[in-house]
Amino acid sequence: MRKSILGLGLVLATSLAVASGVENKWRLEVSGDAESAGRIVLELAPAQGEPLRATAQIVAGRSENGVARDLAAALQAQAGQRYNVEVDDGEDVLVKKRDGERDFVITIVENSVRGVRIEPDAE
């Protein structure tokens, strides 16, 4: 009976992690140029612990590659040494946990920049 309860608990914990979208690496696909100035706010929330918020101020006319660089810089400034942030293929931002860190989820809290779309995908 005790093993059954323990096994059920492990299955439930795994199910919750999958349902919440917690992963060890995320790709933010940026598309479209900035038709207006605005800001993009991202939240990086580890499975346990305090979430980090990063705000990127975007100027009108910024290309999608420029927006990706702005997002990467804002995320890296907040993430410090806990997460690796890099631009990939010009318009994608990769965020990966470093050794010892917990899996996490990234959400877009705000995007007031017309013309820019961001698609977060777990990898």
Describe the structure.
The chain contains two helices and seven strands. It has one domain: Immunoglobulin-like (Sandwich), CATH 2.60.40.4390. With 123 residues, it is of the alpha+beta class. The longest helix has 19 residues, at 2-20. The protein has a four-stranded antiparallel β-sheet, covered by helices on one side. It has a three-stranded antiparallel β-sheet with strand order 3-2-6, covered by helices on one side. The chain has helices at 2-20, 64-79; strands spanning 25-31, 38-46, 52-58, 83-88, 92-97, 104-111, 117-122. Strand 4 (83-88) and strand 5 (92-97) form a beta hairpin. This is PepSY domain-containing protein. Keywords: Signal. Residues 1-19 form the signal peptide. It comes from Cognatiluteimonas weifangensis.
List keywords for this structure.
alpha+beta, Immunoglobulin-like, signal, PepSY domain-containing protein, 7 strands, 28% helix, disordered N terminus
N-to-C CA distance = 37 Å
- The count of strands amounts to 7
What name does CATH use for the topology? Immunoglobulin-like
Question: How would a crystallographer describe the biggest sheet?
Answer: 4 strands, antiparallel
Main sheet: strand order: 4-5-1-7
Fraction of residues in helix: 25-40%
| Total tally of structural domains | 1
Q: Architecture in CATH?
A: Sandwich
User: Shape from CA axes?
Assistant: elongated
Radius of gyration: 17 Å
Report the portion of residues in β strands.
35-45%
Sheet/helix structural class: alpha+beta
Report the top-level CATH class. Mainly Beta
Total helical segments: 2
Low-pLDDT regions: 2-19
- The topology string of helices and strands comes to HEEEHEEEE
Mean pLDDT, as a whole number? Answer: 87
